[in-house]
Amino acid sequence: MGIIKFALRKPISILVLVAGLFFFGIKAVNSIKIDIFPQLDLPVIYLSHPYGGYTPAQMEAYFGKQYVNLLLYVSGVKSIETKNIQGLTLIKLTFYPGTNMAQAAAEVTAYAGRAQAIFPPGSQPPFILRFDASTLPVGELVLSSPIRSNNELMDMANVYVRAQFTSVPGLVSPAPFGGNVRTIVIKVDPELLRIHNLTADQVVAALDRNNQNTPAGNVRIGDINYLTPSNATEPTVKDFENIPLYVGQGVQNLYLKDVAKVEDGADITSSYALVNGKRSVYLPITKSAAASTWEVVQNLKKAIPRFQNNLPPDVKLSYEFDQSVYVINAVKSLMSEGAIGAILTGLMVLLFLGDVRGALIVILTIPTCIISGVLFLNLFGQTINIMTLSGLSLAIGILVDESTVTIENIHQHLDMGKPKSLAIWDACKEIAFPKLLILFCILSVFAPAFTMGGIPGSLFMPLSLAIAFSMITSYLMAQTFVPVMGNWLMKGHNKGKQSDEEEFKALHAEGRDKGWADKTAVVAEHRTKSGKVPLFDRFRARYLRFLDRFFPHRAIITIVYVVLTLLVSGFLLSRIGRDVLPRTNGSQFQVRLRNPDGTRLERTEMTMIRTLHILDSLVGHDNVEITSAFVGNHPSTFSTDPIYLFMSGPQDGVLQVALKEGYKVNLEDLKERFRRAMSETQPEVRVSFEPIELTDKILSQGSPTPVEIMISGKNHELNETEAFKIVDKLKGIPYMRDVQIGQSIRYPAININIDRVRAAQMGVDVNGIGRAMVPATSSSRFTDKNVWMDPKVGLGYLVQVEVPENQMTSIDDIKEIPLQSNQPRPVLGDVATITKGTLYGEADDIGAISELSVTANLHNTDQGTATRDVNKALQELGPTPRGISLEVRGLSPTLTDTLDSLQTGLIVAIVVIFLMLAANFQSFQVSMVVLFTVPAVILGSLLLLMAMGETLNLQSYMGIIMSVGVSISNSVLLITNAETLRMKNGDAVASAKEAAGLRIRPIIMTAVAMVVGMVPMASGLSEGGGQVAPLGRAVIGGLVASTFAALFILPLVFSWVQNKTSTKSVSLDPEDKESEHFIPSLYEHDAHQ
């Protein structure tokens, strides 16, 4: 009561407080960080270690398993997963929730440093990255040119673009995709080497002798200290051609140009990036963990013209696949939904009360509460993201409840003939405590957010805080701002005569605890004299007459209601689909194409180009905004790139497609047509759609598809057998698509079996043979590092010797690799047997145990159904062989954790509310009656969700939870009045009828206000509205059902349960007059004293 009295006595202070909230709230809106996701508790660290040329088996043995042995000492490690491909080991460490990730990262770095001692010579330290939501790219910065090669674009991207990213606060980017590092390439001709009896290793040795990074010293002559630089490093690329190959006097020398071509080129091409079908280079754009996604993206867009000035005119920069648009669309949706909700709510108040000024007061509270909510979110370190925006959007429907009920109650007291100021004071005072109790009930619904862990907790907490801050502000506004503005803006009801007012004053003087019938005596008399009965009063009378018919059968109706709602809700729960987040029909998708293992990069590129033609035929070229493709695997130089996009070999290609916004197409149908077209035109290519939106990428926690089954065991053959059995089983499920083994297990290889005895007899050894083979099959950079400095750029570039790929095209060419200097024999074929075979192109481990994965996508099916059917299919396969373990990953574990947490949270919330109501009413029976609307909420929400084709997911669950809170608030309003009346008159039936008649208008107004506030959200018509539409639909369905239950079931339940309950207080105090244990003699004795 004190806060209301303070507001009425110091109205200017209230206006100052509201103005201050509004002012600082606007500042908070402008300064708060805008992100896609809240800070997620993702306890994952990646370690990437390249070592060029090693086979997957070598990377696994020399790096992967060695790392595992040491990293097991790191505190809190839950699992260690390793991917080994040619030249790369990629390790994913997952930690238990609650692990100190800063300490874990430090320990990983320390143990990785210790591991260097046992690695092969020349090994570089690994790259270690803490993985969280900010690690994932939020867009791509594309460099394209009609005349320049990818390697030139790559160098420009590194030197002139990426180097300037420090000028954009919070911007982070890995190495560019699509090209390779600039390199001075010495391409030796095998035939010329044979003619001159040379080996490639001799050329490498000559290069090492003649291109040195010699430090410059100083010479002090007189008073001058001279630097002494030399041309130990070749001044220009052209000068490399004149490097002599022999050393000594009297030798007719040969020069590098006699056996090789020197090119200012790039390392061996291992990948291409294609933007709109043309070779390009792009930089994945990420941000630091503390930065705002929106600010980083906007600052980058502003900086693009500055970056462009440093590039040649033919090179164009563009920012594509912008992921920040999702959160901005959500902000726009919030603004539009808030405006529409406020207008509709104002119209509703106008309809029920006919009060334009009261409607204006309700409308004014909405932006103030929302802006204040943002202010407190900012103070508590939260950001504007899709979850806090969902909370604020949901709060719009609830915010009007507080002010609407207050305005309605003021009108009710004005109808009694009270003076305006007194009506406002009595009305606010009357509902102050019930509204506070309602606030606690709704806040209790979200209390489980503090007990949730992992991803569900990280997502639920910001949403809960957004609602809580807005609701607390709304309650305070209803108790302070609304009565102040009501006094200033609203008009009194001058319907009664002077004698009526005098009669009311006399009635009021007798006591303020009179019943509803007594308080409305003046109005009833006036209406009888005038002969006019308002429309709503006629509706109320009909409602009470209708309700009166059911009181004789209240017990049967209550039992039928409970049984029916529970049975139907249970049936609906067994039929409704389940997903982590709502399924939306976006305009972007990503697909991975897998050619047969070992397919050359050039062939994979042609596959991608043919795929782009197929896409054009399906949607029309003009309907494609942009396509971005990456084919092949990342150069070993860029150890961070595989963390962002993993590619297992040259046979892989990933295509990202963005369709134009105006093009309407069902994405699931388009994917299905794409699959059919690919199987008809390129049947050898395996297709697998992967998540492109950040929400899906984060929730899948690294899994490429919604369904992923891991098969682990020591025996590769048993793993493969089990994997093929699972593939066949999943293909039998009608809605499963893209079922395949995720690893390359039949990669073609040319096995070189060296006969060491034969080699020794011919004067060579394994070391010499290996050094001769390296330039012929890869590059000398892996065995002999040589660097040249470009004086124009001021950067150092590697120099490497290699045999051109077009000079090594058959087994015979391999056999003719020379092994010994100055002698035509032996060649490799003299000391080794060369045969074709296969090996693993990707060796994956869980810990030190080998594993394979089976991946699958879904077509028009929810994740819950897929999880159930996959588990059933695995059970039907029977027990796995000894030593083989199966684990279901993908979205299934996230779905289970999320729904389990929400279900537990809902149960906890109901229990907390029950206990709180019991403490308030001092009656377990009354608090149980209040909860009788909860079954109707669940039934109504599930019915509308199923009717709209929605699933049970994080957003719809939020709607159900919110509906429970609002339904209980309506129940509290009704039951509080009913119990107060029953304690006075002792008649539960009469009290239930009177309370229903008294509270029908605020209950209907509350329901209608929230429903109309949720209509814009539930429609899903705004930008990005599909993500939050299930939330609004669940609220509307639950609220409509609970309103009917509150008006038609709750009075019956109350009258039945409380019919024979004593009106005496449960107090045990013998001095309490209301207690059954009251002893009058004690009271009289105390009074006498």
UniProtKB/TrEMBL annotation:
SUPFAM superfamilies: Multidrug efflux transporter AcrB pore domain, PN1, PN2, PC1 and PC2 subdomains (SSF82693), Multidrug efflux transporter AcrB TolC docking domain, DN and DC subdomains (SSF82714), Multidrug efflux transporter AcrB transmembrane domain (SSF82866). The chain crosses the membrane at residues 360-380, 431-451, 463-489, 555-573, 902-921, 928-948, 954-975, 1003-1022, 1034-1057. One of its GO terms (cellular component) is plasma membrane. It comes from the Bacteria. Keywords: Membrane, Transmembrane, Transmembrane helix. InterPro entries: AcrB_DN_DC_subdom, Acrflvin-R. GO terms for molecular function: xenobiotic transmembrane transporter activity. This is Multidrug efflux pump subunit AcrB.
